[in-house]
Amino acid sequence: MENFKIEIDSDGILTAFFDVPGKSMNTFTKGALADLARIAEQARTDDAIKGVVITSAKTSGFCAGADLEEMLGGAWEGPVDKNDPEGALKAGFDAAFEMNRVYRALETCGKPVAVAINGLALGGGLELSLACHYRVLSDGPKVQVGLPEVKIGLFPGGGGSQRLPRLIGVQAALMAMSEGKSFKPKEALSAGIVHEVVADDQVLSAAKTWVKANPKASAPWDKSDFKIPGGGPYHPAGSQIFVMANALLRKQSFGNYPAVQNLMKAVYEGIQLPFDAAIRVESRYFVNTLQTPQAKAMIRTFFFSMQQLGKGAGRPAGIAKTDPQQVAVIGAGMMGAGIAYVSALAGIKVILLDRDQAAADKGKAHAEGLVKKGVSRGKTTEAKGQALLDLITPSTDYSLIEGCDLVVEAVFENTDLKEKVTKDAEANLYKGAKADSAIFGTNTSTIPISLLAQASTSAEKFIGIHFFSPVDKMQLVEIIRGEQTSDETVAKAIDYALKIRKTPIVVNDARFFFANRCFIPFTAEGLHLWAEGYAPALIDNAGRATGMPRGPLEMMDDVALDLLTKITSETAKAMGDAYVPIPGEKEVAQMVADGRLGRKNGKGFYDYPDGGQKALWSGLGDLFAVKVDDSTPELVQEIKDRLLYIQAVTAARCFEEGVITDPREADVGSILGWGFAPWSGGIISFIDAIGVEKFVARLKELEAKFGARFATPQLLTDMATKGETFYGRFGKAEKKAA
Ligand code: NAI
Prior knowledge:
Layout: E1 4-8, E2 13-18, H1 30-45, E3 51-56, H2 68-72, H3 85-107, E4 113-117, E5 121-122, H4 124-130, E6 134-138, E7 145-146, H5 160-168, H6 170-179, E8 182-183, H7 185-191, E9 196-198, H8 203-213, H9 236-253, H10 258-270, H11 275-290, H12 293-310, E10 326-330, H13 334-345, E11 349-353, H14 357-376, H15 382-390, E12 392-395, E13 406-409, H16 415-429, E14 439-442, H17 449-452, E15 462-466, E16 476-481, H18 487-499, E17 503-508, H19 515-531, H20 536-545, H21 552-559, H22 561-575, H23 585-593, E18 606-607, E19 615-616, H24 620-623, H25 633-657, H26 663-674, H27 683-690, H28 692-706, H29 714-722, H30 726-730, H31 732-737
Parallel strand pairs: 2-3, 3-4, 4-6, 5-7, 6-9, 10-11, 10-13, 11-12, 13-14, 14-15, 16-17
Antiparallel strand pairs: 1-2, 7-8, 15-16, 18-19
Bound molecules: 1,4-dihydronicotinamide adenine dinucleotide.
């Protein structure tokens, strides 16, 4: 057997050690499933076998779930023959049902089966465990179990959607599966997901002990007196659960996730059926989910692309890896303080510079606050926290920059000031031992990198390293190439971003780079709608229904209205005659002048009463009278289209201009940078799933009705003519794999 090592002891207990060759973590491939089927068959037919224990031979964990590469490669859907849709569906069902069939064969093999979960067990790994009669879990610090499939657009399709509700009740199971929640050992025990939690070196023996003591074991749902804990749909209490859960999931996901809807249906229908029929229902909904564009795009972006970019997929080839040890952060304000913290968290020594010692100390105090919070929540220890803080030296002395591997400049957004700081910093950076290898990064959010590089003595070592706020939470870092930035500098900036555990994307220099360039039109479209007389509540409700984390008006409050007003006026200044004013921008400037700065001072488009719920500010109607406040489905759809298409067409323009070149970076960047509707798999998958031709047709309608900002870029016209997709035309990974 290739994927399991078998031992049979003198008591007749068969222990199967899961150990997929050549992989650091076990996943279920078709081959591994076939091996497990043989184990179940041997247990069923061989009288000498008295019981079975499943465990993992890997130190990395038990099993991370199904092999997504195989799944996305179509192996789990079966052969798709366009001329035989019925046959294709049947083949898809058979392929997806195989996991259920095998797990069920193990569960009903007639011998006691226990699992010794000696590490992480997620997705198909936990589902296998649920099919065992007894579950012992290791109490190791990194151990977690859960069914996180919804996070990549799927739902548990290996019996999880049927066994978990039967085990812990419908409500708890639906919550765990619709959130993709992970359980630590103690949580898993108290939730009733496992029977026992023991020290890591005792999991196997505990599982064996149980098998020996329980020669006649079967699953609770195979017993004649079985009842769903808390009641099924026809039980007075159970019926309430579905009504509430349905409303709650609708409120959270606006029907954007087929996986969540299918999960609900599979649970509702499945728990009313005998178990063998229930898993067939699950497999049907699973295949249906797997075939949606949302699932395919989410798997690609959330699993593959994030992993690839997290390993530096955008890094120029052929350049030796670097490992920055010391960084100087200049400007200890909101951004600089965060950058200092995440750098020290990764073990990098930080010189944190500001104009005066008090400002520098304040920057370090931010790190102290985060450490304190981490200690109080048990996420770190006092000693580790202190070691982190010891790495940060707050100062005003630029001579300390000598010997640093890189500088990250985060002073006020002012070109003259940044030029002066660049000169002063480089005079120290480019001398001494690191003179040749060091690089200079700026965290500017709006000023072109090539313009700032004019102040540098070494423009080839000058680069944009653009963080997002709050730095300790936001995963994305935009690495911006100036005209003269060298590949080596790009590689070093990526090495730094990876070391501080951020996900870097590489973009070329252009106004607002990539993320802000696509995000700002979302808020601007909100202003258009407001100025046209749409009720603010309608705008933000439709905004949230697109799957964006917030509607455009509340999003502006969160960013801060004064900052947006400043960006608008600076943009207008820089663009001169080419600038097209946004209706509503004057009114927002007036709100700022009247002290309405957004969430940060409790007054913006919304009022934020202390401890109370935010509510739309009553004065909005005085600035633009409400003309439209009734919402037909068609109207809501049009607002949703405007809010999403304006972002997506901007992303297409970024490809046309070469600001961004890799669809994976655009998709991942859009989700990590500004929360672009995650159900779509990202801003480029959004267009690809609609199809460029249809996308262009809708753009033309929007342009005719709302103006030139929706004009079709030439690139899209070309792609529509040729029937191309973004991943087909620009997809590097797919081309290489092919
Ligand atoms: P901030 O106003 O909080 O901090 C700027 C800091 O620079 C202040 O502590 C100030 O004392 C210091 N400073 C000014 N002149 C200095 C000098 N000559 N030497 C050393 N320190 C000096 O500003 P924030 O928000 O941290 O922004 C900093 C940079 O990051 C700007 O370029 C901004 O555009 C960019 N950025 C801001 C984001 C945000 O959400 N606030 C997001 C991404 C980038």
